[in-house]
Amino acid sequence: MTFTKSSVLMLLMLFFSLMLFSQHSQAAIETFEFDNPQQEKTFHELTKLLRCPKCQNNNIADSNAELAKDLRNKTYELVTQGQTKEQVIDYMVARFGNFVRYDPPVTPITIFLWLGPALFIIFGLLVLFRQIKKQPTKASVLDTEEQEKLQKLLKQHVKDTK
Amino acid sequence: MLNKRRVLTLLVPFIIFIIGAVLLATPLLKGSDPSKLDSALVGQAVPAFTLQDIYDENKQYDATIFKGQKMLLNVWATWCPTCYAEHTYLNKLAKQGLYIVGMNYKDDRKKAIRWLNDLNDPYQISLFDQNGMLGMDLGVYGAPETFLIDSNGIIQYRHVGDLNEKVWNDKLLSIYEDME
Question: Which CATH number goes with the domain that contains A40?
Fold first, then answer.
């Protein structure tokens, strides 16, 4: 009976993996035709760069949302019209705001994203240098009396271990 | 004295942490929804368009309909359950005398007309945007959306999601009243 049990399990596994597979292939059915490879490249770069406003954490190439499909079609339309990458991005930003960009531009609000890490590193280094400077360097140097004491102790130790 | 300064320096990271925590927690506690985006068109005129009337194919409208008085532009569709939920409230607002323009978005004309006949029509003008052309230009990313447009045809606010008594009184009413 173990044979049938395992074969049922195998069938189930196959079934579920096929389900996964079919979902993937559905997303890839859409086809676009381009006049030249350059346009195709621009299109793929753009659909990876543009973020779907509806699904928030997908770019429009990955998303199956109706809106993402519309944005892909629009991108295709603009690219085949000969518009540049920047022109298409400007078109989308004018309608959906900077939210549609996965590479946010430097603005007064976002500048902290670029400067923040640098400021933290500089601040950390300053603190570090000040701490190092402050450390009493004298502590490591022994005066003559202490040296003698140390030598004595060392001699004692050597004797003891022998 | 030196000790005091040392304590203060050591407090700096803690203070930065507190400021960061407050900044991050405020939107959470205020309950702001990250899926609701501000419109990129606030402060701009309604984009140019030519669309048919939903009831009459031969009747066409353009952006001039948004000039002359302040109004609401409601984007809706029969495939959108939230639109169904807010429809009663739109009827209520229309009864109060608000001028509401409806934009049926990526929908079926017959279904839309049936919807308006069955549920009452709160719209002074009903645009039929089958391909979502005006929707794209307005940055519509889901229905329902409601735009507040002043008498010069300038978009002053966009609300994403359903319109109800609470949303209207808490958010939209004051903006609507401040508009020219």
Answer: 1.10.8.640
Q: Does domain B50-178 have CATH number 3.40.30.10?
A: yes
The SS3 of residue B175 is helix
Per-residue confidence band for B110, with pLDDT thresholds at 50, 70 and 90: very high
Pseudo-torsion of CA B123, B125, B131, B133, nearest 10°? -110
| A99 chain-B contacts, CB cut-off 8 A | 37
Whether residue A85 sits in one domain with residue A41: yes
- Provide ipTM, 2 decimals: 0.81
Residue B132: which of A54, A70, A97 has the nearest Cβ?
A70
User: Would you state the structure tokens that stand for residue A6, as one six-digit string?
Assistant: 């395992």
Same domain for A21 and A76? no
Please tell me which of the candidates B37, B137, B141 has its beta carbon nearest to residue A67.
B141
**Binary contact (A94, B34; C-beta < 8 A):** no
Closest Cα to residue A96, out of B96, B103, B136?
B136
User: Residue B65 is encoded by which pair of tokens?
Assistant: 């309909």
Contacts of B37 in chain A (CB under 8 A): 53, 96-97, 99
CB contact under 8 A, B37 and A99: yes
Domain enclosing residue A143, as ranges: 111-161
Q: Which residues contact A40 (CB under 8 A, 6 or more apart)?
A: A32, A34
Could you tell me if A101 lies within 8 Å of chain B, comparing CB atoms? Answer: no
Per-residue confidence (pLDDT) for residue A25, from 0 to 100: 45
Whether B37 and A96 lie within 8 Å, measured CB to CB: yes
Same domain as A51, residue A100: yes
Q: Please state, for a pLDDT cut of 90, what percent of chain B lies above it.
A: 80
Residues A101 and A39 in one domain: yes
Q: pTM for this one?
A: 0.74
| Chain A positions in Cβ-Cβ contact with residue B41 (cut-off 8 Å) | 95
Give the pairing type, strands B145-149 and B100-105.
unpaired
Domains of chain B by residue range:
1-32, 50-178
pLDDT at A26: 47
Q: What pLDDT is recorded for position A15?
A: 65
pLDDT digits (tens, 9 = 90+) for A48-85: 999 999 887 899 999 988 899 999 999 999 999 999 99
Mark whether A4 and A41 lie in a shared domain. Answer: no
Same structural domain, A20 and A61: no
**Shortest alpha-carbon distance between residue B137 and chain A (Å):** 6
